[in-house]
Design brief:
This protein is 8% helix and 52% strand. It is mainly β. A five-stranded antiparallel β-sheet has the order 1-2-3-4-5, with no helix packed on it. Keywords: Repeat.
Amino acid sequence: MNGTGRLEHPSGAVYEGEFRDHLFHGAGTYTFPNGAKYIGPFSENKFIFSLSASPVQCLK
C-alpha cells in the first residue's frame, strides 16, 4: 500500500498516517494500547526521534 491510511493492530495499537511499500513511512501518529502517542516522522516502520539542546540549556 502507498498513500495514507489507518492500521489497527489486535493489541489495540493504531497507526494513522503515510505508508510506502506497506510500511509506515512519512508523517504519522502511532497510538500505543495504553493511550500514549508518538506523533512525527516514520521511516520503514521505525520512529524517527530528534533531540536537540543548546549549550545554554545544558548549563542551566
